[in-house]
Amino acid sequence: MARKLKYDKVLFTATLLLVCASIVMVYSASAVVAMDRFQQPYYFLIKQALWTVLGLAGLALAMRVDYRTYRNEMFVWGLLAFVGLMLAAVLFTAEVNGTRRWFNLGGLGIQPSELAKIAAVLFTAMTLERRLHRIDELSYSLLPIGIVIGGMMLLIMLEPDFGTSITLLAIVAALVFAAGLHYKYFVGSVLVALPALYLVLVAAPYRRRRLLAFWDPWADPLGAGFQIIQSEIAVGTGGLFGRGLMAGIQKLYYLPEPHTDFIYAVIGEEMGLVGTSGVLVCFCLIAWRGLRISMRAEDTFGSLVALGLTTMIAVQAFINMSMVLGLLPTKGIPLPLVSNGGSSLIVTLVGMGILLNISQHQSADA
Fold it and tell me: CA dist 294 to 121, 218, 299, 316, 360, Å?
């Protein structure tokens, strides 16, 4: 039997701290660039503040909606149909930096692949809960998930957006593993996926260059290796306490888009090891509390949704921070709750709201 509790204050506080850090660091990282491009140093700050208000409103609303509402088949399939339509439609929009990922509405970019993450979590959790008793019968339990999630991944790959596709795959893998799928199927899946992953990575010339630059960025310091080198310089020169807020050098046209994918490098240069460690601790707290909520949820659906949302945030944070530190090849994955970007921020905050709602329900024996 479940009892109604207060929401997880540790999770809420860690989320709020990252959002506050986002407002400060987006302005610090973007002011010079915004002045040069738009003659408005507050251009990105104003946008981020607007998205933050909308995202926090979404979080507050999601906290008050019982998570069991999302178990409804009509709701989930309706959400999937909407996301699928958006993912298909975005392929016919104008290219931005060689990709088609955004709808431009009144100067604000809407990225449907972000909403696909929430849809994937809810659909996979709902399907697994209802087919848990025959989890090892792949055609019954996993084939529907493979078809739906695989279709979304294909549309996202066509944008192209390899990073979000990997995030979706990680979410589904975590949920299927937690549902109790026998390990032999995981081993088989990995063996099958490795050649396909290799082909995907080397098929596109820009991905090949990124891989080569990861192994030896100094082989092409002004080309493919430029991003990694400049990022490592930013983090390395920050030292323990950093150069000071607004005093960073690498954001001045050395780091590409410092307010988005490389904002963690700006934090490292301006706030030092103390700042980057603080951000890392906040994400560790989110991962810990999210897993705790998953283990204490009153039902399987809540447990799987909590795990999926935690995986969504943790995987993106791990990839982004590892990329900035040169531990993984550069990839267009933002730092959740911190990087500039409206769609990512709103979807992540709504996801946190759902997670906080689940935290208010747990089994009496938890």
Answer: 13, 44, 9, 19, 12
For the chain, what are the domain ranges?
2-363
* Contact indicator for 87, 156 with CB cutoff of 8 Å: yes
Three-state secondary-structure class, residue 348: helix
User: Please, are residues 26 and 46 in contact by the beta-carbon 8 Å criterion?
Assistant: no
CB distance 354 to 67 below 8 Å: yes
| Residue 334: closest CA among 352, 348, 354 | 348
Dist CA 93 CA 101 (whole Å): 8
Chain segment 290-332, per-residue pLDDT in tens: 999 999 999 999 999 999 999 999 999 999 999 999 888 887 7
* Element at 216 (helix H, strand E): none
Q: What is the DSSP letter of 71?
A: G
The closest alpha carbon to 227, from 317, 321, 330, belongs to: 330
Q: Which has the closest alpha carbon to 320: 243, 240, 231, 239?
A: 231
Claim: this prediction has a pTM higher than 0.85 = yes
CB of 354 closer than 8 Å to CB of 70: yes
